[in-house]
Amino acid sequence: MSKDLQDYRQSYEKSELLESSISSDPFELFEQWFNETEAEGGSGEVNAMTMSTIGLDGFPKSRVVLLKSYSADGFVFYTNFNSEKGKAIAQNPHVCLSFFWPSTERQVIIKGLVEKVDEKTATKYYHSRPRGSQLGAWASPQSTEIASREVLENNLAEVEEKYEGQEVPKPAHWGGYIVKPVSMEFWQGRQNRLHDRIAYIKEDAKWNSKRLAP
Predict the structure, then answer these.
(1) Catalytic pick from 63, 106, 129, 193?
(2) Considering only CA atoms, which of 18, 19, 22, 41 is closest in space to residue 31?
(3) CA gap 140, 16 in Å, rounded
(4) Helix 119-128 vs helix 131-139: angle between axes, to the nearest 10 degrees?
(5) Cα 101 from chain centroid?
(6) Rg, the chain, Cα only
(7) Torsion sign across C-alpha atoms 113, 114, 118, 123
(8) Spatial contact of 73 and 180, defined as CB atoms under 8 Å apart
(9) N vs C: which end of the chain shows fewer Cβ within 10 Å?
(10) What DSSP assignment string belongs to 138-190?
(11) Each residue's pLDDT tens digit in the chain (214 positions)?
């Protein structure tokens, strides 16, 4: 089986990224791009990001997770601490986040260190989720091998019965992480593959920027 993809090409022409028109603060630029992409409306879940970790087997692994909040402190997402990514983070807290927004022809790549968010914040977010999602956090032994789909459905039925008519407590194995950036790179597609790339590097608590060749 094979397929030739040499003719798959797209010309990027929507915008530009120039030093004269951007903030010295990468979080301000991220917020601007996020809001513009959201307003444009063509990138689906604008908060979807690819997160890469170094696994226990030594291989990098990437998966899509959802950004749930961001601030000058960092980027927050939630997951099962016992999952494959949770175990990878526990061993090596260096991760990479990547946002690709084709509707605005933009990409943001963030390298950072991960810490757990505090329990109060995680619990508050957990109880803001739909009840089905709360129950799902109990029903799924995330990343472990299971015999069939029925295992999940049976687990869900059990926790539905267990917590019927009462608040679903947050599992101890479920919570949030914040990625605190050490670098943030902004990529804007341009014609002739001469894309704009501006990288912000954090040095001694200060952000410095530089232009990279495409």
Answers:
(1) 193
(2) 22
(3) 44
(4) 120
(5) 13
(6) 20
(7) positive
(8) yes
(9) N
(10) HH--TTS--S-HHHHHHHHHHHHHHTTTSPPPPPTTEEEEEEEEEEEEEEE--
(11) 999 888 888 899 899 999 999 999 999 999 999 999 999 887 689 999 999 999 999 999 999 999 999 999 999 999 999 999 999 999 999 999 999 999 999 999 999 999 999 999 999 999 999 999 999 999 999 999 999 999 999 999 999 999 999 999 999 999 999 999 999 999 999 999 999 999 999 999 899 999 999 9
**Residue 64 CB: number of other CB atoms within 10 A?**
10
Of the chain, the end-to-end C-alpha distance in Å amounts to: 32
Distance from C-alpha of 71 to C-alpha of 57, rounded to nearest angstrom: 32
- C-alpha torsion 180→184→188→192, nearest 10: -140
Predicted structure pTM score: 0.94
Return the H-helix or E-strand segment holding 3. none
Assess contact for 210 and 199: CB atoms under 8 A: yes
Residue 197: which region, alpha, beta or left (left: phi > 0; alpha: psi -120 to 50)?
beta
Asked if 141 contacts 203 with a C-beta cutoff of 8 angstroms, the reply is no
Query: Could you tell me if 33 and 187 are in contact, meaning their C-beta atoms sit under 8 angstroms apart?
Result: no
Active-site residue flag, 197: no
pLDDT score at 44: 83
Closest CA to 137 of 91, 81, 209: 81
